[in-house]
Every structure is written in C-alpha cells, then in structure tokens.
Amino acid sequence: MKPFGSGARRICGVAAAATAREMKFLLRQALRYTRTVELRLDWLRTDHERQKFLSWLQRTRPKGAVFVATCRRRVGGGEFAGDAGAELHWLINARQAGCQWCDLEVETLRELLGKSVEGYAIPRKVMLSMHDFRRTPKLPKKLSLPRHGGGDAIKMAAMSRTIGDSVRLLKVLRHSPHLVAVPMGEIGLPARLLALREGSALAYAPVAAATAPGQVHLRDFKELYRAHKITRKTRVYGVIGNPIGHSMSPLLHNTGYIAAKKDAVLLPFLVERLDDFLKAARDLGVAGFGVTVPHKEAVFRRLDDCEPLAQRIGAVNTVTIRRDGSLYGNNTDYLGVLHALEKKLQLRGSRVLILGAGGSARAAAFALAQAGAEVCVCARREEAAQALARAVGGEAVRRGALRSGRYDAILNATPVGMHPQDGASPLRAGELHCSVVMDFIYRPAQTKLLQIAAAKGIRTVSGVEMFLAQGIAQWELWMGSRAPEAAMRRAVLRALQAEKQKRW
How many domains would you assign to the chain? Predict the structure, then answer.
C-alpha cells in the first residue's frame, strides 16, 4: 500500500518562500494541481514568519489536503539555522496547524534520545530523509524502514552524476515499497519524472522557486509530462544534448501527445557521455530519441541502420530504438531547412553560405545542394568545412573572406547566440553581405545575429520554422499518424512570446 495514495496525490508540490504571505500564495497555487504539498518551513526567513504562516494554516486547514512539514537544517542541506531542538519545535507547531506528515532528516534522528521519534508530538507520519548533494552512493538492493526509528516512509535524494546513477536509484524502488526516490541534478531530471512509474511513494515538484537542482515546475510535471499517468505501457521518448535546458522539444512533442490522446511522453536528457545514455536508455524503456548539439555525428557512428538520406548526410537528429535494441536513424533537419528557407528564397541557382560544419550544417548542405543551390561552407575547423564542401560539390570559405563575399543567403548552423548566451552573434554586421539571414537557433526566436541583419535591412528567417518542421516530422515518424500541427505550433509560439515579454 502506498503511504500517500495513488494518482495525482503522489505528486508533491513544494511551497518554499521567505515570507508567510508568499507561502500562502504558493500553497493556494499548489492545491490547483495536487492535494499533497510539502511546506518548507526552513525557507521562511524568521521565526515570526514561520509562526504567522502556521497560525494562518491552523485557521484555514484546506479540506482533503495532505501537508508534509519540513524544517530542514543546514547540516541536512536545508535553510534552517537552528539546532535539532528548534527543528522539532517547529514540527510540533506544524502538527498543531494540521500537518499530517513531516520530513525528518537522518542527521536529526541520530541526535534524538534512542535515535527514535517516538514520544515527540511531531506529525503522526514521519518520512526519514537522506540527502547526498555530491553523488549517488553505493545503494543496497532494498531500503527498509528502521525497526526502532518510528518512521513511516524513507526518502533517498542523491545527486546524479551520470544517467546510470539515476537508473541505480530507481532500481531500488522495485524492492522498497515505502521509498521516495529523488534523483537530483539536471542529469537526474528524466528519472524524477519516471520515479512514480517505478514505484516511488512521492515525486516532488516546486510551485515556484526550485528547492533542489533539476526540478520540474509543478504545472509542467502534472500537465505537460503527466508524470502520474506514466505506466509500463507508456511510450517513452527523449531528446538528448549538452546543453539541453533550452530545448522546446518536450513542449512540442508532449503538447502533440496530449492533443492526439497518445499514451506517450518525451523527456529531456542532459547527455555528457553518449555511452552513458545509450546504456541507460534500455533500462528506462526509451523507444526513441531526438538528437541535438553536440551528438548528431557521434550518434550516427553508433547506429545499426539508417535511412539512405541520413547515410549520405552522415548525421541524424532522430533515432528509433527497435524491439531488438538496435538503433535506426533518420534526419528530419533536412526537411526543416527546406521548409523554412524556400519561403524566402528561390533555392535553385542561389549562392548560400553555411556557417558551421556539424550535424545541422551537414543536413542543410545536402538539402540545399539537392535543391540546386550553390553551397559554401565556413567553419572554425577549416578541415571540417572543406570535407563538407567536397561532399556536396560546394566551396569552403575562410572567415576573412566574408568581409567581401556576396551571398544570396547566410545560414548560422552554430550554437553561438543560443539561450542563455543570447547576447552573442557568430558574425558581425560587416560580414553580412546577403539578401537573407537564417539562424537555426530558435530560442530566442530573434537572436542577436537576426537583430544585426534586420538593422541592415536584410530579410531574416527565425529557427522557429525549422524547429517546428523537423519536430513535427519526427513526431509523425514515431507515432505513425498525422501530428496535431496547430496545437503544437501554438504552444511553442506562445512560450517564445511569453519569454520575450519577460525579457522586456
């Protein structure tokens, strides 16, 4: 039996703020998505704010809600500066205010008489928590409640240095019915979303400010990823890259799954070592994954088979994991480039410069060459530029030649200018002698490069159109049906617009 019930109740919203007023607001927000809320009393900046909030909670007592009181000390990774006695004081107050559960770190338990919570008037249900903010330690096959500790559940939160670390932590859930498993860090984020599927008693998601690395906002946790509905039958996909936090692929794909009523989810994987991901993908049941910088060419070398077009390009952005575990590759970047650029330019006979020689640049070069354009390539690594130019019958161009060279279009296929370094541009105004500038970066939609080009009166093409075209093609390839394009496009454009307004 699960100690917190089933379904959405196993999603625990985390309310953490400096003032009682802010905590009240966050609690109300949390209850819109779940009936289980952790109240981080240690985040409240003074004892006065703690007392004010708990007094309000005692008067209000929202019906049907389960509250977990936490007043974690700094020795356990929290914000509370007091000692163990002061922590227990606030947990006792939390029980009087209506909190049914409390989170007590093992550091505090060891300081209690008899190393047990028995006899203390803290909330009746106790979760004993262990945190390792540096690594995932060696774990036993099963984590059991201590015989004399008085706990009702155990929480193990550990930093994932590799995706394999996350898998190890999730495997413990199979034999530990009262365990809450929390893989921490951005690398551990996908496993956080899969933890409920594996049997975790709870999964945490902040209402506002993150209280631990790699957390997913409560709204997205429930409504975009639908983590509480992921089962063994759910088709799990991913997008891999380094960095990956900027990617809107989860928003694009998951919006499509929801609109089309598909039992599927796409998760973002920060991948530092490709082998680490490929090994873990099978353990996590990943059915396919999108590929972004810097893995497109490296993944190509690991494929068992791929479509003829991807074979010629030498890079893929879409991988399907077949039932026998083999990897099959496709390249939908090719379609994205053509779809975005042909609206602004007659490609046949045009002279197009591609900046970069990575996987996206290769897809663009082959797409343009096949469309009849004259392709020029400029890259930081001259040998890479020459190799790509030869492959498409084009020309390698040195950076210095851009000050005098003339092109119909210039395409940026490098990550320079990508969020969060969106104040950078790969080219200066004096190097833009063309009619059209296209940036493959879609976040921000209006990059510094496009701003410079627009100021010179040059027509611009945002990477948003390329992103949408390749992502929709990828969705249809995996789902085997037409994508709900309108809903997917609307979600991405709305998110980009909201981000732009926030900057202003």
Answer: 3
Dihedral (C-alpha) 379, 380, 382, 384: value to the nearest 10 degrees? -60
CA distance 403 to 406: 9
Whether residues 343 and 459 share a domain: the answer is: yes
Which residue, of 198, 231, 264, is where some domain finishes?
231
- The H or E element spanning position 239 is strand 235-241
Residue ranges making up the domain that contains 339 = 334-466
Crossing angle between the packed helical segments 163-172 and 189-198, to the nearest 10 degrees = 20
Q: Is the pLDDT of residue 450 over 90?
A: yes
CA–CA distances in Å: residue 57 to residues 41, 65, 94, 97, 208? 12, 12, 9, 6, 19
Rg (CA), the chain: 26
Q: How far apart are CA 329 and CA 282, in angstroms?
A: 16
- Active site includes 296? yes
Find the CATH number of the domain harbouring 324: 3.40.50.10860
CA distances in angstroms from 322 to 250, 266, 288, 289, 471, listed in the order given: 21, 17, 8, 12, 20
* DSSP class per residue in 375-397: EEEE-SSHHHHHHHHHHTT-EE-
Q: Using CA atoms, how far apart are residues 72 and 479, in angstroms rounded to an integer?
A: 45
Beta-carbon neighbour count of residue 125 at 10 Å? Answer: 16
Q: What is the tens place of the pLDDT at every residue in 13-34?
A: 999 999 999 999 999 999 999 9
Contact 204, 214 (CB under 8 A): no
Q: How far is CA 416 from CA 40, 166, 252, 315, 412, in A?
A: 39, 31, 23, 20, 8
Residue 504 has pLDDT above 70, yes or no: no
**pTM of structure:** 0.92
Question: Within this chain, do residues 403 and 306 fall inside the same structural domain, yes or no?
Answer: no
- CATH (domain of 61): 3.20.20.70
What dihedral do alpha carbons 375, 381, 383, 385 form, nearest 10°? Answer: -10
pLDDT in tens, 170-188: 999 999 989 999 999 999 9
Amino acid at 77: G
Which position among 155, 222, 262, 296 bears the catalytic label? 296
Q: Which residue has the tokens 């399907």?
A: 320
